[in-house]
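# step 3/5: fold
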Amino acid sequence: MIRRASITIAVLAISCSFCSAQSNPVVSNAGSQQQPKADPKGTKPAPATSLTGCVDEQEGQWVLVSDQTMAVIAHLAADGFPTEAFAKHVGHKVTVRGTSSSGGSSPQFKVRTIETISETCAAR
């Protein structure tokens, strides 16, 4: 009976050692160089930038228009806040900060922050 208990304890100890080795593997970096991870799409994220203009809604989309000509500068997309937040800035001159991606006649701009410059926006 004692021999059977000793064998059971030995098997448990070995299996616990094996489990521990699997969950905490020892990795040796000797002689190897770490390669930077490649972006799967091969593109770098767009750098953060800012645009200044007036918020407007055209054909169901939020846009930033020039305060001089009222021409569309960029289509706006909320990044980190609800899209409905653009509504309180309609007709205001603002600076939007975020990232831009080109496409079509005007770029798509992912807005991270909005700063009100003026509560009015009129062509001069």
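# step 4/5: annotate
The chain is about 20% helix and 35% strand.
# step 5/5: archive (pending)
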